[in-house]
Specification:
3 helices; mainly alpha
């Protein structure tokens, strides 16, 4: 069995959401945005916890910009 890539798994998720009730897409969107918000707040208020992180905090900030651009509540 071939292991799917992250992109393939995300595309499958979106495809499944297209055929499901739209409430699931709304819930997932809200959760993604909320988790990004919590992550950025943590980076700002507790930077010492992120000093030795495997992923640099700036990558989370860049990811948040992408998330906000495509699914942020300000972009309805």
């Amino acid at each position: 069995m071939k292991i799917k890539t992250n992109e393939q798994m995300l595309k499958a998720l979106i495809k499944d959401l297209d055929t499901s009730h739209s409430i699931y897409a709304a819930i997932l969107r809200e959760r993604i945005i909320k988790m990004m918000e919590l992550t950025l707040t943590s980076i700002e208020t507790e930077p010492e916890k992120w000093n030795n992180s495997f992923i640099h905090p700036n990558m989370y900030k860049e990811l948040n910009n992408i998330v906000q651009k495509h699914i942020g509540f300000e972009n309805n």
